[in-house]
Amino acid sequence: MTSPGLWWRWSLRELRQRLLLVVAIAIMIGLGTGLYAGLTSSSHWRRQSYDASYARLNVHDLRVAVGAGATVAQGRLAAVVRSLPSAAAVTGDVERLVLPTEIDASRPGHTVLSRGELVGIDLTARPPVDAVSVARGRGLVPADQGRDVGILDRTFALANHLPPSGTVRTSGGGQVHYVGQGQSPEYFILPGEQPGLVTQSGFGVLYLSLPTAQRLTGQPGAVNDLVLTLRPGTDTGAFAAELSRALSAALPGTSVTVTDRDDIQTRRILYDDVNSDQRLWDVLAVVVLIGAVFAAFNLVGRVVDAQRREIGIGMALGVPPRRLALRPLLLGVQVGVLGVVAGVVVGLVVGAAMGALLRGVWPLPAWHTNFQVGVFARAAAVGLVLPVLAALPPVWRAVRVEPVRAIRASAVAGGSEPLAGPLGRLRLPGGSLAQMPLRNLARAPRRLLLTAVAIAAVITALVVFTGELDTFTRTTDRAERDLTTSAPDRLRVILPRVEPVSSPTVTAVRRSPAVTETDPTLALPSRIFAAAGAGSGRGIGNGRGAGAGNGAGNGDGATAEPIDVLTYILDIGHGLWSPSVVSGSRTGGVLIAEKAAHDLGVHPGDTITLRHPQRVGTGYRTVDTPLRIAGIHAFPVRSVVFLDNADAGAFRLAGTTNVLVVQPAPGYGRDAATRTLAAIPGVASVASATASIEEIRTLLRSFVGILRIGEVVVLLLAALIAYNAMSIAVDERRREHATMLAYGLSTRTVLGLTVAESAVMGLVGTLLGIAAGYWALRYTVEVLLAETLPDLGVQAILSGRTLAVIVLLGVGAVAIAPLAAARRIRRMDVPSTLRVIE
Amino acid sequence: MALPGSPAGRETPTAGEPGIAGAARAATEQPGATEKPGAAEAVRIDLEGVGKRYDGGTTGVTALADVTLRVGSHCLLVILGPSGCGKTTLLNVIGTLDTPTTGTVRLEGVDVTAASRRIRREVRRRAVSFVFQSFNLFPALTARENVRFGADVAGRDRADEVTDEVLVGVGLAERATHFPHQLSGGEQQRVAIARAIATGNPILLADEPTGELDFTTGVRILELLRGQSEQGRTVLVVTHNREIARIADRVVELSGGRIVHDGPPPGGRLPAAELRW
Fold first, then answer.
1. Residues whose CB is less than 8 angstroms from the CB of residue A48 and which lie 6 or more positions away in sequence, other chains included
2. DSSP-assigned letter for residue A67
3. Is B149 on the interface with A (CB under 8 A)?
4. CB-based contact (8 Å) between B132 and chain A?
5. Which helix (H) or strand (E) holds A36?
6. Above pLDDT 90, what percent of chain A?
7. Of A432, A735, A744, the CB nearest to B124
8. Residues from chain B contacting residue A834 (CB–CB below 8 Å)
């Protein structure tokens, strides 16, 4: 009986001989497991970084907000808090003044004009609540109270490439020197104009001392916001209820809401996205891993198949099958061990790329991108086990075959496959040479299937990655097309509150030389839900006031979950711009997005309930109004609802406006008109017609970045599969090639036959991959993305161009791979090869 | 006459001789019969002082030394000798799979000694065909398709008819649709010979064609090769088996890369059926 040492040495010698192939297969495994580890690590990083960032800045437990553009005297809100019986539970409270503004951070040659907010903070309050972290420059100190200095939001500054310090102008002509760039918890991601969307460059936050903000906004001694923290263990809900009651009693007639940490919309988006994003990344990583596994399965199997004759000889010599199985299984172990090493390297590289991407998309105060031992251990276990599993079936087949069959030279040809006979007898056109590629494939259908599936798995991943990019591009293109159907240069002048169309601000805008036409409209936060499910979701009045709720639909098919929307009331068909519809009509009811209709399970002609503000005297109340769905608009954002003025009687807001759509005058460029209009007292901000496009693009930015990383990994994988398949195929066919050369065929012809065979295999794999990929694309877009991005209506799209590139890549890469073996075939020692008796 | 498709001046054909292409073309007219008896004077293989040395660092191996050999048509020549005597090297040099270190090789009057790869390839397509010890059939092709491959490579007209006729000739018409793994060793070797015959090439080179076969099957193979030489082909058989040499028209014995005997088989030629080993 031979010693284990012999088998080990034998195996090591074989490893040296085929090191390149083993390394190549190992890298494939590494790409699959590494991508999985890299992507999965990111969710851990995100969670721990969010926790650390919120903790570092002492995020509030409760927030008190005075609504409808009202303010109260400084100290009033704090006094109410301190008067509570439970006031001892409060560990910190800070009064603020938070108001919308236009941020003009333009420099010569670089225009930056965005809507935004001024956040005035009491710098003397200790401890600070919702503190501002400073990434560049310096922070605000008590000595800055009242001075025109501030901190500019870090995300906004990065996205607009602003210097560490500089000057910005605010609405009403204010000018502030920002001395640093920083962030506070509510603005870790910046809210888009549309509910559910986010932005990076389109919303600027300027942190100031409270007196500075009061002076710049003309609200001396006023605040409209208070944030507080509570002692650990305090019943936040009970405290909030107690505080709400006290505020109602202390500030009668003033709309005040109390919200908790979970109501911070941006915070909710961050944490919710981790789970839904991870599901998507898991699917993508698993698709790539499956591709790598199938490829490794196929290649390891083929290498082991090549050892069948030696196994047969061993059996003939009486070596136990268990011992015979050891050597081919060691190949699996070698691939596995190297695969683990490659997986760790790839995982670290992908992780580094992911870390850079995450820091760019969400520049949080704290990012912890440490090595995730558990994740990598799981990936390593998969990488180690899979190649061994891949080696098992061919080993099993090999040790069960009769030795006499195994040692027959022609047995290696694989004529024993069940389908080989019928397929081999198919009548094919052309001579023997023309038939040979197809005959070769038909002779080993199992190998064809395994290789084609390996190619298909990679193509599937490629279709998913590129298809999602296509889908995103088409979605933003669609949105842009819809917004620019008419008056593409128009601007939206946003007012801080609803005003009569005859108000001084509106009049000033109308009379501004920067505009030629003005179209008064309304944009009002509302909520829609299917009429049958009215009241089933969390309403606006959720027990803690009348703040915007969080009833975003879950996107999981039709649902009665209410959807937060912004209802635009305009003169449809007569204004500067009107929405286009994809079904139904434009008037006679409400226009909702296709995604909203899908999520609510409604169609044009159905009735939905719109929960909206209704003017009562000088104040507002929230009412539910059933409205017929006139049609489905083309804008792909679920939170956009349009209503014709004629159908908006329930709002009782006739003759009022809070968004003026204006056409800039000739000679006024977009920037000049924006600057002119933003300088008008009473104007909150000015936005372009296509500002939402940037918000959609921002929402998709992290996905696009990760998809690009995945695309690179998949392309590498495809190249490796093609190379490995070629390498093994050329090795398997060396005697046939030698025979052809001996019969006078040229190397070119021999290569041509191999290329043709590979091309057919590539075509089969690519077609399978495209079919599976399109299915997977639809699943990831219509199921997973619908959960990840519930407000965006995306439809799976695979463009013709992408399809052509994938076919070219799938067929081409596999087909031309044998060309890499041209030298090997040209330099083949034909006599020696022909004399080898397998 | 220049080889078809070869660049002018790359080879040195002897004026007045039929040339490789011409011989090959003549062979296509009659499947299985290349020339009529009586044309035996034509020299198809002409080796002059051929030597082959393999350099292996400080030590070199002389596989062939000063081999001079002329072979005509209608000849079954057996190259005999022990392992390592250079007989396969000689076959490879004649078959243009290998190039000599010294000397001259002429096939059908064409000097192929220093011919380009392309011309040597053309020679293999049009002049010489191989039969290998381990058959080297294409496993994905049926017996018929393997034979058809020979006809296709040589660019023969009526390839289908040629294929069928050759298959009948080797007695495998009934097994035409079988794959190599479904055939016995003897049948596989007959398919390999049929493939070589189907090329229509005048020179057939067989390297240990009975090496993997039992006696009875081996005799059948030898009868087949004998028949080819009788039909006009030049058949070279490499073997270490002295008994096989007894069916040859001529026996060339090698030792240490040199010809030590060249003449009819000792004791005269025997019919294949009378061989014993």
1. A368
2. -
3. yes
4. yes
5. helix A19-56
6. 30
7. A744
8. 130, 132, 134, 136
A429 shares contact with chain B (CB less than 8 Å)? no
Residue by residue, DSSP assigns A175-233 as: EEEEEEEEE-GGGSSEEPSSTT-EESSSEEEEEEEHHHHHHHTT-TTEE-EEEEEE-TT
CB pairs under 8 A between A and B: 108
**Residue B40 dihedral angles phi and psi, to the nearest 5°:** -65, -15
- Cβ atoms of A512 and A525 within 8 Å: the answer is no
pLDDT digits (tens, 9 = 90+) for A14-24: 778 778 878 88
Report the DSSP pairing between strands B203-207 and B128-131: parallel
Strand ranges, E, within A6-112 = 62-66, 72-73, 90-104
- Tokens at A771, concatenated: 């079919």
Split at pLDDT 50, 70, 90, the class of A518 is very high
**CB within 8 Å of B182: residues ≥ 6 apart:** A415
* Beta carbons of B207 and A835 less than 8 Å apart: yes
DSSP state of A820: G
**Chain A residues inside the 8 Å CB shell of B130:** 742-743, 834
Question: CA–CA separation, A611 vs A528, rounded Å?
Answer: 6
DSSP-assigned states of every residue in A686-752: EEETTHHHHHHHHHHHHHHHHHHHHHHHHHHHHHHHHHHHHHHHHHHTHHHHHHHHHTT--HHHHHH
* Smallest Cα distance from A705 to chain B, Å: 47
**What is the per-residue pLDDT for A121?**
93
pLDDT of residue A432: 85
Which of B3, B134, B184, B204 to probe by mutation at the A interface, max A CB count within 10 Å? B134
Q: Does the pTM exceed 0.80?
A: no
Instruction: Please judge whether A742 and B180 are an interchain contact, meaning their C-beta atoms are less than 8 angstroms apart.
Output: no
CB contact under 8 A, B92 and A413: no
A590-593 vs A619-633, strand pairing mode: parallel
Which stretch of DSSP H or E encloses residue B124? helix B117-126
**Residue B159's closest chain A neighbor by CA?**
A431
A residues 819-838 near B, CB within 8 Å? 830-831, 834-838
Do the beta carbons of residue A779 and residue A473 sit within 8 Å?
no
Stretch 396-415 of chain A: residues touching chain B, C-beta under 8 Å: 408-411, 413-415
The half-sphere exposure of A472 on its side-chain side, counting CA atoms within 13 A, is 22
- Answer yes or no: is pLDDT of B229 > 80: yes
Q: What residues form DSSP beta bridges with A622? A: A613
Element (H, E) at A524: strand A515-530
pLDDT per residue over A329-368, tens digit each? 887 888 889 889 998 998 888 888 888 888 877 888 889 8
User: Is B148 in contact with A431 (Cβ distance < 8 A)?
Assistant: yes
CB B11 within 8 Å of CB B123: no
* Beta strand pairing call for B234-239 and B75-80: parallel
Q: Do A739 and B138 touch (CB under 8 A)?
A: yes
User: Can you tell me whether residue B201 is helix, strand or coil?
Assistant: coil
Report CB contact under 8 Å: A837, B134.
yes
Q: Choosing among A404, A741, A743, A750, which should be mutated to test the B contact, i.e. which has the most B CBs within 10 A?
A: A743
Whether residue B177 and residue A425 make contact (CB cut-off 8 A), yes or no, is yes
Other beta carbons within 10 angstroms of residue A666's beta carbon come to: 6
Q: What is the pLDDT of residue A371?
A: 87
User: Does the CA dihedral A393-A396-A402-A405 come out positive or negative?
Assistant: positive
DSSP strands (E only) in A29-174: 62-66, 72-73, 90-104, 113-121, 133-137, 149-153, 166-169
Chain A residues closer than 8 Å to B178 by CB: none
The residues in B 219-248 lying below 8 A from A, measured between CB atoms, are none
Please determine, for the modelled complex, whether the ipTM score is greater than 0.85.
no
Q: What pLDDT digit, counting tens, does each position of B89-129 carry?
A: 999 999 998 899 999 999 988 999 989 888 888 899 889 99
